Amino acid sequence: MDNLTVLGTGVLGSQIAFQAAYTGKNVVAYDLNDEILAKLPARWEYLREHYLADLADATDEKVDAAIGRIRATSDLADALADADLVIEAVPEVLETKRETWAKVAAVAPERTIFATNSSTLLPSQIADATGRPERFLALHFANEIWKNNTGEVMGHDGTDPEAFEAVAGFAEEIGMVAIRVRKEQPGYILNSLLVPLLGAAADLYVKGVGDPETIDLTWRLATGAPLGPFQIYDVVGMETPYHLNVNSDDPLKREFAAILKRDYIDQGRLGRAVGKGFYDYE
What we know:
Layout: E1 3-7, H1 11-22, E2 26-30, H2 34-37, H3 40-54, H4 60-68, E3 70-73, H5 76-80, E4 85-88, H6 94-107, E5 113-116, E6 136-141, E7 150-154, H7 161-173, E8 177-181, H8 190-206, H9 212-223, H10 229-236, H11 239-245, H12 251-265
Parallel strand pairs: 1-2, 1-4, 2-3, 4-5, 5-6, 7-8
Antiparallel strand pairs: 6-7
Helix pairs in contact: 1-4, 8-10, 8-12, 11-12
């Protein structure tokens, strides 16, 4: 699968597009309007800095070649015209994802395989909206995918095993370790481990037990981990945890979402990708 279309150019969508292009794939980056897409050149330069710093084989020439393999469009039919694989990275809202896939199904080539990068939703919750449930599954990436090289492949009961293996093969071709998740699990393997940590940290913060710096310091010192939970929030970006918590049945989670919106998202503190979140990185 040499032609990839990525739906959504946020933090992970842009990373997926860039990593695929860096490893030789032809990529179309789709988003809702040209105003959003106009921000992509700055995003590519941000990723250039990280690739050059983190990857021993990275050069400006390789990064330039990767950027040259990415085309951006806000025309969905144009974005899908030659797609072998579509990876969706739109906001973590079930109806948004289902509506997106229904639109994709109407115009994508019959051969195209569909994959969601959803962090928490199950493929079976979305599959019927795609019009081709047998060719639909999840391919989930860890943030900063150029160095955190996991690609979790998870189907549903109706996923064709050939489509499953094709997506696993694609993950390996773009430099990931394909993690074959054998049974549908909310959060896959990675987020089944990570989300409880982040949720516990959010609860401690909302209840006033500790501030982000103290909570992070405690975790790093006690476990030897390189990052604390609020540093991880900054890597993920504020919008994903906001969407995951804003309609929670748990009042602590809703309060955390309100804090994210008021003190961070509305202030432009969206996370490390923009240089500031819980911490300042500029």
